[in-house]
Amino acid sequence: MLSRFNPVGMPPTTQFYSHCVRVGAQQPLLFVSGQVGVDANGILATDFAGQIRQAWKNVKTCLAASGATLEDLIQVRSYLVDGQDVETFQQVRREFMASQPASSTVLFVPRLMNAAFLFEVEVVAALPA
After folding, report:
1. Assign residue 67 a region: left if phi > 0, alpha if psi is -120 to 50, beta otherwise?
2. Rounded Cα–Cα distance for residues 99 and 44 (Å)
3. How far apart are the C-alpha atoms of 72 and 30, rounded to whole Å?
4. Which of 2, 4, 25, 79 reaches 20 to 30 Å from 41, CA-CA?
5. DSSP string spanning 38-63?
6. Fold of the domain spanning 30-126
7. 40-44 long-range contacts, Cβ below 8 Å, gap at least 24?
8. Are 98 and 11 contacting, i.e. CB atoms less than 8 angstroms apart?
9. Domain chopping of the chain, boundaries
């Protein structure tokens, strides 16, 4: 069972995330490698929002293969190429994030593995018992 919370004495969250997520003692974890905006046919989405959406679709596919959903996320790390539109990132992310958000880190990086990649996301999920 997941417990998401923001401890007393912590600053309020400024975006859609939880400071802490506690995982049940016997729940296995799934670590999903960084996903980018490339679909199953190897086609990269051409715009920033499209790359974010496709990356999250890839995450959903990985989770589903293990019997998990986005509700099972406990940690999310997002990488945006420096200068990308944060508002668009936040808007698209909310389309996918659960009503009870995971813990989260957002990093701005100068470049990803391929210069055409504008976004990458990696997650950790607690698998259903």
Report:
1. left
2. 28
3. 10
4. 79
5. B-TTSPBPSSHHHHHHHHHHHHHHHH
6. 60s Ribosomal Protein L30; Chain: A; (3.30.1330)
7. 44/116, 44/117
8. no
9. 30-126
